[in-house]
Specification:
2 copies of one chain form a homodimer. By secondary structure, chain A is mostly helical. Chain A has 10 helices and 3 strands, in the order αβααββααααααα. A 3-stranded antiparallel sheet of chain A has the order 1-3-2. In chain A, a hairpin with a 3-residue loop joins strand 2 and strand 3. In chain A, helix 2 crosses helix 3, helix 5 crosses helix 7 and helix 5 runs antiparallel to helix 10. The longest helix of chain A has 24 residues. The first copy, chain A, is elongated, with a radius of gyration of 21 Å. The N terminus of chain A is likely disordered. The interface between A and B is large, with 56 and 54 residues. Chain A binds a DNA duplex through helix 2 and helix 3.
DNA sequence: TCAGATTTGTCCGTATGTATA
DNA sequence: CTATACATACGGACAAATCTG
C-alpha cells in the first residue's frame, strides 16, 4: 500500500511523486539520466503500475521527465517544459495571474542585478550589448548566470518561459538604457541600477 | 483509439488534457463545477479509463482540478495552480542549489519590500511588530502578502520552508530594526528600507 | 438507520508498438 | 531475425468513500 507517513491523507501517486523527487536528489540525477522502469518502480515502491504511471504522467506534463516508448523514462531539462502552454491555456482568463507573472519576472531580474552589485561583479559591457542585439532575454539570462546563484537562474527561466508563452506585450528598450544599466552595475551603484531598471526596463503595471 | 488529428504523435492522455480544456471552455465551467465522471469521460472520448485518469492526475498535480473519492472531479480556482511549488521542489531537491536558498530568500524579501514601497503601501507598524514578537517569519510573510503578488508569496513560502528544513543559523534581529524598516516603507524611502534590510536583517553570505 | 447506486482509488492481466542487443 | 526490455493502452475487478432515497 505504500504508507509514507503515519496518517496518510495523500494518495499513492503523490507519494510516488515525492519518492521520485528523493530518488532524483539522492542519486544526483541530471538531465538525460534514466529512471528505473515502471515495473521496477512499482516493485521498489510497492505500488501498482497504474499508480506509478499516474505519477510519471503528471511529471511528464510538467516537463520534468520524458518518457519514450520502448526506451524508458528520462530526466529532462527544466527549460524544455511545454507545461507553460498547457497551464497558460487554463489561466488565460485570469488577468491577475498574467500580471503576477510579469511582475515576478521583473522582480527576479532586479534581484539578479542587486546580487551582481552586491558581489562586486564586473560585467563585460561589450559582450552583453552584443547579446542584447539578438534578444533582450539573452542579456538578462547572461546576467542571471553571472550571479552564480543557480536557484535564481532557474527561477528566471521558469518565469521567463511563462511570460513568453503568455505573449505579453513587451516594452521596447533602447540600447543606451542597457549600457547605462551595465555601467551602473560595474560602478557598484545599485541605487542607480535599480532606478534605471525600474523606470526604463520594467513594464508599467497599472494599479 | 482517439485520434484528434490526422497523424498524431501525441499520447492519448495529452489529447484528453486538450479535450478537457475544450469541455471546460465550451461549458463555461467555473471553479467548483463538476466534471463528468471518469467512466463517462472514457466513453465520451473513446478512451480507456486509465488514460483518462492519467490526464486527470496530471491536472490535479498542477492544482487545476480536484478529485474527491466518492464525489467526483471538480474545477479548481486556476489562481491556485501549483506550478511554482512543484518545479521549485524538484529544483531544490536535485541541484546543489541549497547554498543559494538563503540568499534567494533574502533577495525575495528585499524585492517584496521594494514592491511595497513602489506601490505606496502603508503598513500597520503596530500589528506587524506584534507578529514579529512571535516569529520573525510571520512578519515577512505578512509583508509578502501585502504585495498582492501571488507568485512572490508562493516563492517566499517555498524558499522559507526549505530554509527552515536546512536548519540554517539565523541572525538575531532587534525590534528596533524592524520598526525602522517598517517606517521607512511607510515613508516611501526604499533606499533606506533596503539599507536597513541589507545591513541588519540579512545574514552575511561569504563569497 | 439502512441499503443501493455512484464515483474515485488501486491493482492486475493482456495485448501491442518500439527500441536495443 | 530473434529475443528481451520497455512504454502504451485498454479493460476488469474489487475496495473505499460518498450520495441518495
Amino acid at each position: 500500500m505504500l504508507m509514507g507517513k503515519l496518517q496518510e491523507n495523500s494518495k499513492v501517486y503523490l507519494e510516488i511523486v515525492g519518492k521520485l523527487k528523493e530518488i532524483i536528489g539522492e542519486n544526483q540525477l541530471k538531465a538525460g539520466d534514466r529512471l528505473p522502469s515502471e515495473r521496477d518502480l512499482a516493485e521498489m515502491l510497492n505500488a501498482g503500475r497504474s499508480s506509478v504511471r499516474e505519477a510519471l504522467r503528471s511529471l511528464e506534463l510538467l516537463g520534468l521527465i520524458e518518457t519514450r516508448r520502448g526506451e524508458g523514462t528520462f530526466i529532462s531539462d527544466f527549460r524544455n517544459h511545454r507545461l507553460v502552454e498547457i497551464l497558460s491555456g487554463f489561466i488565460l482568463e485570469s488577468d491577475q495571474a498574467k500580471q503576477d507573472v510579469q511582475e515576478t519576472k521583473e522582480l527576479v531580474e532586479m534581484m539578479g542585478i542587486y546580487s551582481l552589485v552586491n558581489r562586486n561583479t564586473t560585467v563585460n559591457v561589450q559582450d552583453l550589448m552584443n547579446q542584447a542585439e539578438e534578444d533582450d532575454s539573452k542579456l538578462f539570462e547572461s546576467l542571471m548566470n553571472m550571479t552564480g546563484n543557480f536557484l535564481l537562474v532557474k527561477l528566471w527561466r521558469i518565469v521567463s518561459n511563462f511570460e513568453q508563452s503568455l505573449q505579453l506585450s513587451k516594452k521596447k528598450v533602447g540600447k543606451q538604457v542597457y549600457e547605462n544599466l551595465l555601467k551602473a552595475i560595474n560602478r557598484g551603484d545599485w541605487f542607480q541600477a535599480m532606478e534605471i531598471y525600474s523606470q526604463s526596463v520594467r513594464n508599467e503595471v497599472e494599479l
